[in-house]
Design a protein that fits this description.
Elements (H helix, E strand, L loop, with lengths): L5 H20 L20 E4 H10 L15 E2 L2 E2 L7 H4 L8 H21 L6 E5 L10
Antiparallel strand pairs: 1-4, 2-3
Helix pairs in contact: 1-4
Length: 141
């Protein structure tokens, strides 16, 4: 797994912070119901970039994914075990369909920003399906 430079770690953290502020500006608030973590019940497939995964593993180097089939591997009980380092797709997935297009646009915009930062730093960029894996392991892009 790739190791991020300290400047790239800061860039991801800052991008996540700016995205979270945009979501607050939209008036959205996660109620923690966990529906977005249940891939078997919806049409939602989580994608993440290699940079996001590297950041998550940088923040949580000893994370132990759960194994509940059809659920996000990082949901333990009814809580996200990697909440503050969760990928863009998790940050922009809300139960309220009224803001879906705005959130998709935000996710794409911030993904583009991370890609530009990564490539300008000489880090290769890849993106792919991230979760879930029935065996509790992480699919890396």
């Amino acid at each position: 797994m790739m190791k991020l430079s300290s400047s790239l770690v800061r860039a991801v953290a800052e991008a996540y912070s700016r995205l979270d502020a945009e979501i607050v500006r939209l008036g959205l608030l996660c109620k923690g119901c966990g529906r977005c973590c249940c891939f078997s019940e919806g049409e939602y497939v989580l994608y993440a970039s290699s940079i996001e995964i590297a950041y998550l593993l940088e923040c949580f180097p000893h994370v132990s994914p759960g194994t509940e089939e059809g659920m996000c591997s990082f949901r333990i009980g009814d809580q996200c075990s990697v909440y503050y380092a969760r990928p863009l797709g998790c940050r922009t997935q809300f139960c309220d369909p009224n803001h879906r297009r705005e959130l998709e646009d935000l996710c794409q915009s911030f993904s583009d920003q991370l890609r530009k930062k990564a490539t300008s730093s000489g880090v290769s960029w890849s993106c792919g399906q991230f979760l879930p894996r029935n065996d509790g392991t992480v699919t890396l892009p």
